[in-house]
UniProtKB/TrEMBL annotation:
Transmembrane segments: none annotated. Residues 13-47 form the ChsH2 rubredoxin-like zinc ribbon domain. This is DUF35 domain-containing protein. InterPro entries: ChsH2_C, ChsH2_Znr, NA-bd_OB-fold, Thioester_dehydratase-like. It holds the Pfam family OB_ChsH2_C. Residues 49-102 form the ChsH2 C-terminal OB-fold domain.
Length: 136
């Protein structure tokens, strides 16, 4: 069986290039997130990677203002949310703060879009980052 780096490596590599990808089952065309060894719909193992738009809907989010009790190695505050992509899959991602340094402009059930993090951040913690449209 493959190790976890072989399973998740392409996702992190795409994030480092500024792209968002999900798995796609070549047997039934199901889009899958998070990476798996087999398709949860048809149990096929002919899986590939597929670029997605990065646009989606913020289902829920939280702002963490205090550090974890163990060494999570992220300085608070930071925000994480669950995003349902236009293509169907949903995933947990980090949320970019607004120009004022807060996340007050985010609203559940509102649109967000993938906005890549810096390569150094992705190398340390490979997570998709999203931003809400800024009001003018």
């Amino acid at each position: 069986m493959e190790n976890s780096e072989q399973l998740t490596g392409p996702f992190g590599e795409a994030l480092a290039r500024g792209e968002l990808i999900v798995q796609k089952c070549n047997s039934c065309s199901e889009l899958i997130m998070y990476p798996k060894y087999r398709c949860p719909s048809c149990f096929g193992n002919d899986l590939d990677w597929h670029a997605v738009s990065g646009r989606g809907q913020l289902l829920t989010y939280t702002v963490l203002r205090f550090g974890a009790p163990s060494s999570f190695d992220v300085e608070p505050p930071y925000a994480i949310g669950i995003v349902r992509l236009e293509e169907g899959p949903q995933l947990t991602g980090r949320l970019h703060p607004g120009p004022d340094g807060t996340w007050d402009h985010y609203r559940c059930d509102e649109p967000v879009a993938f906005e890549p993090a810096e390569a150094a951040e992705v190398a340390q913690r490979p997570a998709a980052w999203f931003a809400a449209p800024q009001e003018s």
